[in-house]
Amino acid sequence: MNSTPKPVKSGKPFAARKKEAPHRINENITSQTVRVVGENFEPKIVSLREALALAEQFELDLVEISPNANPPVCKVMDYQKYLYEQKKKAKEIKANSAKTTVKEIHMGPQTDDHDFNFKLNHAIRFLKDGYKVKVMVTFRGRAIVYKDQGELLLLRFAQSLEEVGKLDQMPTLLGRNMTIMVSPKPVKK
């Protein structure tokens, strides 16, 4: 067996690499004069040294929020709390933009009334739960000659769902399947 040591990759170790902060804070601010804003005092234009002293007086950070302004705008705030609130807002936005799930309901062109009503009740429950519903009529074998019957069945289904959902797409035939899409109606508060 060959016991030669493995070569070490060049560059900084993983722990030494640091992600750059989205804002310049405290001593990282480069401009000599800044416009200072905050909650406890009037906005004013001061030197960087005075602005840092002001931030230290309130035991907060000086954060450059608008670096392209003339002079740059810096805010006196608790930077870690600000970052935490930004993460919290982003997480909340992500949670509110939930992915819509599509539920499928399959029927044949000669589906009788009992089966139709059974599947209709399922669709109503899905729409009330906030899901989109894809209703599909599958034509097997020679049943493809009953395309018009399948289309009438889908339109009747969509009409029965008018109270809880709205039709997104009229019946379309793709191969041996004819489909419609129904979205839930927005809930009125």
Q: Output the strand order for the largest sheet.
A: 2-1-4-3
Portion in strands: 25-35%
Number of helices: 4
The amount of helix comes to 25-40%
> What structural category arises from helix and sheet content?
alpha/beta
- What is the string of SSEs from the N terminus onward? EEHEEHEHEHEE
Radius of gyration: 31 Å
Coarse shape: rod-shaped
Largest sheet: 4 strands, mixed
β-strand number: 8
Give the overall average pLDDT. 84
Fold and architecture overview:
It contains four helices and eight strands. It is α/β, with parallel strands linked by helices. Strands 2-1-4-3 form a four-stranded mixed β-sheet.
Topology:
Blueprint: E1 33-37, E2 44-47, H1 48-57, E3 61-66, E4 73-77, H2 79-96, E5 102-107, H3 113-128, E6 132-138, H4 147-160, E7 165-174, E8 177-184
Parallel strand pairs: 1-4, 5-6
Antiparallel strand pairs: 1-2, 3-4, 6-8, 7-8
List keywords for this structure.
alpha/beta, rod-shaped, 31% helix, 4-stranded mixed sheet
Summarize the structure.
The chain is of the alpha/beta class and 189 residues long.
